[in-house]
Amino acid sequence: MEKKWSQLIRKAGYNDFQSPFLREILDTLPFSLFIADLDQRVLFVNQTLLSKIPPGDYIGHSCKKLYGENCDTMLCAYRQLQKGHTTCLFNLKGKTRKVQSTYLYDCHHEPWGYCEIITDPNEIDAAEHILKSIVNGAPEGVFRICYDDVFTVLYANGTFSHLHHFNPEDSDFLNLTTHLHPQDFKQLRSEISKAIQRKDLTVTFEARIQCTDGLVHWFNYSCGIDYSNPSPIISGFEIDITAQKDLEAKLRLSEKQLKIAFAQTNDTIWNYDIHTHTIKQSRFSIRQFGGPEIMRNVPEGQIESGFVHPDSAETYRQLHQKIISGNRKSEATVRLRHQDGNYEWERIKYRVILDHSGNPIKAIGISKNISAEMRAKSQAQLDALTQLYNRAFFEERVTAYLCDHPNTQRHSQAALLMIDLDDFKSANDSYGHAFGDEVLRVISQRLRSCFRYNDLIARMGGDEFAIFLPDLPSEDFAHKRALEVCKTLQMPLYGVTPHYREYQPSCSLGIAFFPEHGTLFSDLYQNADTAQYNAKRTGKNKYAIYGVEMSSESSSSANWMNKEWLMDELDELVYISNITNYDLIYLNRAGRKLTGIGNIDYTGKKCYEIMRGRKSPCPHCNNHQLNPEKFISWRNFNPHLDKSFIMKAKLVPWDGVLSRMEYALDTDIDPEISKQMEKHR
């Protein structure tokens, strides 16, 4: 019996000894057994041998530790193995012991270790009985088959007979070919034949068996090949994998149906791995969006690369954050860059896949191109001439905001601005509707330049416009926007039409604040319109706030407009800042162009942040040296703007507050003027 086990173990590879089932069998054998590598380091000791030697940690140590006082005798057995002798008899403590040694080979027929089985000849019969009990009780089928014409079954345990629904007493039990599925027999014989020709020690295969219950079952076989007989003997284990095969077939069918379904649509599908923050694109997705099959660092990588439109960046980020936070599903509509470089609207829906413990591991994303739908929706929302929001959609959006912010305790949380062009009707009647339409388009473009991306701008009809400013940082913000509108709209219409010299545009503007002047759209609209009428009645080209006396407000707004208008016409950089908290109050057009910021981007930011790129006040700041009587001048190199300037600064009253005015002349623009200024510092 130990010879059979020696042959079986010899055919097993290193990985086979990691099998819990095989190690359990070796542990229950009645004879002593250990396995070592070629450097005589112990890899495995079965429980029978461990029970006969002193307790200790033997794994990874030299076999000499395992041999103990029998070291010389056992080393002699290993030397015999090296000479080709596999069996030796020794007298250990007055008892005869047989040591069976065998090399262990890998799939390339290279020895990777050896096994020694130590037995008492008198215990062989008892061991044979125990071994049969173990094998018959194994959950896998155990068998020995002769590689002949009919695959004669030499041995089969009870599990093998049960799995095949065989009766060992039937005459055809020994003939395995009568049970093999016809389509598998030729392929199986071919695979085993090739393995034998290569002198492989192991072979694995799958086959279908026609069982006596009338059903076809799938089995997986893991076998060793014994070449010591005229006909090779195949010994091994089998496992019924019918349920697994059925599941695989259902998955393939489901996959095929899904592919057919997706082929009929423009939808794309991808796999989002929550733990690695990667997206695996399908082939159709790659054709649609381009890029690599694996997208990494999701979502930030796609935002930084421009795959996601900047306006959709935060929405795309929140889409994935919901999944990471534990939501089972997440949806969003964003603009993504397609293979042709154009951005298209995509509606993305994620559904989460959980592991066996209920933890999210992946999410399946389905993206649908809805650009046509969005264009149709946009056309229903926009004014055809100006491409601003139309009146109906503007009222809907403003009403939705007001409903989401009921009973607010904060003053001036939002503002509604009503704008009416001054003297537009007479100009339109005089120069024609084509002229009027072109003016309205130009005015619309100028309005866009004055406001934030989330402000709502609409053409209410004719030459009347409305702007809704949500989430105001302060009431002063609305004042500044109103001034900016008045100043921007009154710029000449150079080259717009042949009659640009005859018509000087301007506007009258009214402001109503939410919630002070109303909590309903109708109230805010009526009150802002009333304020706008007051501005037009008291002189035009100005703005008014609902409920505020027009005389003082009109004067104040005119002063503001005149100062800003004049400084915007200068080629030199001019800015105004608060001398206490360094807030940047005003930056003229030349300064906005030089620093690369928009009309309103500097609101609430620090002068040292915008002008110097610093996070704290400049160490050489001379606010304490300034006075309202005269300018202080000096030469300065600005590393943030990479330019040299002649600087002049003084204190000036601005909107009732003493502020710093700084004037900067770029020395590279006009060296001669620079020299003259330097001379008269």
Summarize this structure as a short list of keywords or feature phrases.
681 residues; Beta-Lactamase; 36% helix; PAS-like_dom_sf; PAS_fold_3; PAS; PAS domain S-box-containing protein/diguanylate cyclase (GGDEF) domain-containing protein
Gap between N and C termini, in Å? 112 Å
Count every beta strand, where a strand is a DSSP E run of 2 or more residues: 26
CATH H level of the largest domain: which superfamily? Reverse transcriptase/Diguanylate cyclase domain
Total DSSP helices: 22
| Domain tally | 5
Q: Radius of gyration, rounded?
A: 44 Å
* Helicity level: 25-40%
Question: How are the secondary structure elements laid out?
Answer:
Layout: H1 2-11, H2 20-28, E1 32-37, E2 42-45, H3 47-50, H4 63-67, H5 71-82, E3 87-92, E4 95-105, E5 111-119, H6 124-136, E6 141-146, E7 153-156, H7 158-164, H8 182-197, E8 202-210, E9 216-226, E10 233-240, H9 242-263, E11 268-273, E12 278-281, H10 283-289, E13 294-295, H11 300-305, H12 313-324, E14 329-337, E15 343-354, E16 360-369, H13 371-381, H14 391-404, E17 414-421, H15 424-431, H16 433-449, E18 456-461, E19 464-469, H17 475-489, E20 507-514, H18 521-537, E21 542-545, H19 550-568, E22 573-578, E23 584-587, H20 589-595, H21 607-612, E24 632-638, E25 643-654, E26 657-666, H22 671-679
Parallel strand pairs: 20-21
Antiparallel strand pairs: 1-2, 1-5, 3-4, 4-5, 6-7, 6-10, 8-9, 9-10, 11-12, 11-16, 12-13, 14-15, 15-16, 17-19, 17-20, 18-19, 22-23, 22-26, 24-25, 25-26
Helix pairs in contact: 15-16, 17-19
